[in-house]
Design brief:
The chain contains four helices and no strands. The protein is mostly helical. The protein has a single domain, classed as Cytochrome Bc1 Complex, Chain D, domain 2. Helix 2 packs across helix 4 and helix 3 packs across helix 4. The longest helix is centred in the middle third of the chain and has 19 residues. The termini are far apart.
Length: 121
């Protein structure tokens, strides 16, 4: 139930702030580690293909096949929830921009599903 609620909340927040001239800070609740969100698109071929297309257009320029300016996403050990949070909010002090106003949470999950489906681009 919590997983669905946070995904809906994230989607509503992105839609509600689409006209804002600044990025939305995506806030996750202080939930227990066993209550972390997981990617609802893992293992779904159509979602993985969509994730590949998004990766090609938005991520490849920095992350390449095995890391570049950005880290190697195919070797990352971060949680599903941290992946979503990082892509939506970006990372201060790095070249990772916030994609919260450019990609929906579902699109981020699809990229993650693609990345988790293989060990390289």
């Amino acid at each position: 139930m919590r997983k669905l609620h946070l995904i809906q909340l994230a989607g509503a927040a992105v839609l509600a702030t689409a006209a804002l001239p600044f990025p939305l800070t995506f806030v996750l609740s202080n939930a227990a580690a066993d209550d972390e969100m997981t990617n609802p698109f893992l293992g779904q071929p159509a979602a993985i293909e969509e994730g590949l297309q998004i990766y090609r257009s938005k991520c490849y320029i920095c992350h390449l096949s095995q890391g570049g300016r950005g880290p190697n996403l195919f070797a990352t050990k971060i949680s599903d929830e941290k992946f979503l949070e990082t892509v939506i909010n970006g990372r201060k002090g790095t070249q990772m921009p916030a994609f919260g106003l450019r990609l929906s949470p579902d699109d981020v999950w699809k990229v993650h599903a693609f990345v988790k489906s293989t060990d390289h681009y």
